[in-house]
Amino acid sequence: MKYIKTLGIDLAKNVFQIHGADGKGKCVERKRLTREKFIDYMSNLPTCTVAMEACTGANHWARKFRAMGHTVKIISPHFVKPFVKSNKNDRNDAEAIVEAASRPQMRFVAIKELEQQDIQTIHRVRELIVKQRSALANQIRGLLAEYGITIAKGIGHIRKQLPNILSEENKGLTARSREIFSEQLERFKSLDDQVDTYDKRLGTIAKQDERCQRLMEIEGVGPLIATAAMSTIGNAKVFKNGRELAAWLGLVPGQRSSGNKIHLVGISKRGDRYLRTLLIHGARAVVYTSPKHLDPRNQWIADKVKKKGSNKTAVAVANKNVRVIWALLTSGERYQKFKVGMRKYFSCATSGKKEVNTPNCSAEESLHPAFAAQSSAIGI
Hints:
Elements: E1 6-10, E2 15-21, E3 27-34, H1 35-44, E4 49-53, H2 58-67, E5 71-75, H3 77-80, H4 90-101, H5 114-145, H6 155-167, H7 175-208, H8 210-215, H9 223-233, H10 242-248, E6 253-255, E7 264-267, H11 273-289, H12 296-308, H13 310-331, H14 342-351, H15 363-366, H16 369-378
Parallel strand pairs: 1-4, 4-5
Antiparallel strand pairs: 1-2, 2-3, 6-7
């Protein structure tokens, strides 16, 4: 067999295109194999670097090839696209994968372990059920409107109002329509029960995982976000810092810069949309409750809401939470809410001095129960 240093594979369900290159990048192998022949070929191939695009089945094949002794690299498809020559086909795609994998500054995707795959499967199934429940709720609301019955937006209003509507005779529903809506209500309850079942599974996983327990100490992070972060991120040490992780999740501004002109736009929205959405929704709860607290973090959030609005502030809080998640996963430490900046923030209560860029403390604030509790927590 010819010496192959890097093998690029264009994955598919039944047909696999391979492109092998030697140490100088010259093509020494180019084949199109069926699934059965592909497995035999890889089993007999001497150890080399195997590169693939991140797509369906990539993690399975990566684990399989890694067990054979190969060095496996997974590349995001949009990093491979610039290396595709001429028209797009399987042969050119496999060659482009080899070219992309040979770049010294190329970024690679971490391989998911089976435990991560299991947790992610639960999240994906739950996500679909939630979408089906939302679609059913919207259909029920729209159909009832044709009978002159309106229900406010929100899953909770369907749960509360629909049983009452079906039990009353003077709401303009016919016997046939009432029967149909009763069936819809049962279907809605069934989806509700399924969502609760998966929520309990994720809660159990979060309780059994020490890393999830530490992540849930962060404001705005619960069992859903903690387990989703563990299944998506995995080994956080593959990221050099928290900002790189935030950029990987699409929570940093995109750029349209040229020359010496820096132009920032909205967040890039790259990476896993599901986890990014959960993080932002969790941050919304933190933003909503921030006026009730006096610690520096919540005061910073309250100031941001006044200047930028609640939506941009929620994204900013999600960005901060991702950086904290990276720090906790890489260091193994527990989250310490009042460790940084608390003494400086409350120094005005004891010395009467005002610090630059810190909120002023009034006499009323110094007597606030939350202020007293937080002060005693840091020993001032």
